[in-house]
Amino acid sequence: MKDLSTMSVVITGGGSGIGEAAAHHLANGGAKVTICGRRAERVEAVAKEIGPNCAWVQADVTKDADRKLLIETAVKHGGGIDALVSNAGNMERKPVEEWTEDRLQQIFNDNVVAGMMLTQEALPHLVKSEGAIIFMGSVYTVRAYPGAAPYAATKGALEALVKVLATELGPRKIRVNAVRPGAVPTEINVRAGIFSEDAAMQRLQSMANHHAVGRIGTSLEIAEGIEYLIRAEWVTGTVLAVDGGMGLGVIS
User: Fold this and answer.
1) Is 151 a catalytic residue?
2) Domain count, the chain
3) pLDDT averaged over 10-residue windows placed end to end, the chain, 252 residues
4) What is the pTM of this model?
5) Which domain holds residue 218?
6) Kind and range of the H or E element at 175?
């Protein structure tokens, strides 16, 4: 497996949740990590907590200028880019009757198009390093929850994208994979205005019996899956389920 301590890693959505945990975990392993987020105070606080191995930039990855700034910052901080973790995203939960075209286009832009365009921006550096790209899938692609169609559709698009990009970029020695988390505490539902923080946690805990192991996961456990896919030199085109068995459809 590749040596994490020699790597420069870009993580979008690094101010909270899975992105924050991944930044801590990879930086603790010696990687030079560059994180971004829309909320400057959050990403700055995470970077300061991690220390010199972490650089940060306020960036909205749906904007071309911000994507360029993020990649420039990562190259300066880490001497190149060995891995891109496309973690930033948003949530949309609405029944069919309440869909709007503008909002559907926005959620696809947030969750799919932005990551695709960031991949394009980072590509020359990933070619040089024979690097890795990690997208964030979702158990919603294998478990059907009413009202979650807009979000699930974006994650289904990403999981399909992984296979095509792995085939296209494989000849250039770039590996493309995704992590598919189960129920893990993050701020995505709170930021989307769907639940309060307490209600979001209560909802997650109520889903413990949807997991074969009988509990929800942690952001660190997802970060461990991300590390594996960054380092594993013979794994590409796969969606790694780190979901406590939630995708099995068990309700105990």
Assistant:
1) yes
2) 1
3) 97 96 98 97 98 98 98 98 97 94 97 98 98 97 94 97 98 98 76 63 87 94 98 98 95 84
4) 0.94
5) 4-244
6) strand 175-181
